[in-house]
Amino acid sequence: MVKGTLNELSQLKQSGFGQPEPRHGLNLLYWFAREYILFDFGEIKPKFNPVFGEFGFHKFNNRIEDEDHIVPIQNLPYYEVGNLNYSNADKLPNYVRQKYSHYNPDSNKDRIIVHQDGNGKLNRVYVTEHSDQRHFDSSKTYRVSNGLLLIIKNMSREDFLSKVSNTGNRTNNQQPFYYQQHSVYQSYSTPVNHTPSPRPPPPAEDSSWCTIL
């Protein structure tokens, strides 16, 4: 079953959803909150009906797995989005798709699941991830509150990522986290056995100088 409800950015960060790169869940959630939904007196209305399959939405089959359901049993349908291999998923913005690789399952494991009521509104929104190619992980499934979605909707993507990413919001010119972990000196073009030149000592008269690693 659902592990809990995410009400704040800090809770989203602590959940680990969509992290680390190349996972796309955080960007997917930002797109969903910013571009896909509208708020109508506190209720969520989709700009596009998920039944028509825009952006790769398709019906979610709430299968019984280990005598449990990923999300609560409801008479009305659930829909999921986030499978970058699915039909029409190429209409998602580039910032959602840019890290995707067919050879790396982690780049396509995150999903958003929504429950649509009889009036076409989305009364439940969940985030989850695949535990393998077929099954979702109930211990990594969370409901996302309307309040948190509204917070995200009113943020820039850069600000959102900087507040919820456990590795910080890295620009395109910075090294990937893998390289940051292994060496702060080694660049893409520097041989592994290269010994960096010593840095010059700081000028004696400038007490504000410091070594930047």
Describe the structure.
This protein is α+β, with helices and mostly antiparallel strands. The protein has one domain (4-167). The chain has helices at residues 9-15, 25-36, 94-97, 146-153, 157-164, 177-182; strands at residues 4-6, 37-40, 43-46, 58-60, 64-65, 68-69, 78-81, 110-116, 122-129, 142-144. The strands form 3 sheets. A 6-stranded mixed β-sheet has the order 1-10-9-8-7-4. A two-stranded antiparallel ribbon has the order 2-3. Strands 5-6 form a two-stranded antiparallel ribbon. A hairpin with a 2-residue loop joins strand 5 (64-65) and strand 6 (68-69). Helix 2 packs across helix 4. The longest helix is centred in the first third of the chain and has 12 residues, at 25-36. It is globular.
Quick summary:
Residues 188-213 are annotated as: Disordered. The protein is of the alpha+beta class. The protein contains six helices and ten strands.
Features:
213 residues; six-stranded mixed β-sheet; two-stranded antiparallel ribbon; alpha+beta; disordered C terminus
List the helices and strands and how they pair.
Elements: E1 4-6, H1 9-15, H2 25-36, E2 37-40, E3 43-46, E4 58-60, E5 64-65, E6 68-69, E7 78-81, H3 94-97, E8 110-116, E9 122-129, E10 142-144, H4 146-153, H5 157-164, H6 177-182
Parallel strand pairs: 1-10
Antiparallel strand pairs: 2-3, 4-7, 5-6, 7-8, 8-9, 9-10
Helix pairs in contact: 2-4
